[in-house]
Amino acid sequence: MSPQRHRLGLYFRLHQENIRQPEVCAFLRHLLRHLRGPVIVVWDNGRIHKGPIIRELCNAFPRLRLEYFPSYAPELNPDEAVWTLTKRRLANGRPDCLHDLQEDLLRSLARVSRPQTILRGCITQSDLPPFLP
Known about the structure:
Layout: H1 21-34, E1 39-43, H2 52-60, E2 64-68, H3 79-90, H4 98-113, H5 116-124
Parallel strand pairs: 1-2
């Protein structure tokens, strides 16, 4: 959420293979290039979100702050609602190849991420304490 305009954004990357720490670092660097000011990332306690190269990145970019959800707390994670909506839009589809699936997924994520009301709903439906203006 931008601090001045309180505009929500959904940032993501798709990978064909399992994501490891180097891909996480590349994504964080991408965010830092495109967002000004402090960047706070809230995510789960997955192993790929921790470790020496993640700590090194945080040390190199003091404006990056990482916050973690408690372990096994999907009810706090607004991301769960984003994926539920995204998968619902893909239901009963049958892409012919991986490329078509990626295109369908990108279109579905775009439809979920554009309207501010949908993103706000994903946050407010979670069990997070209220923080939106």
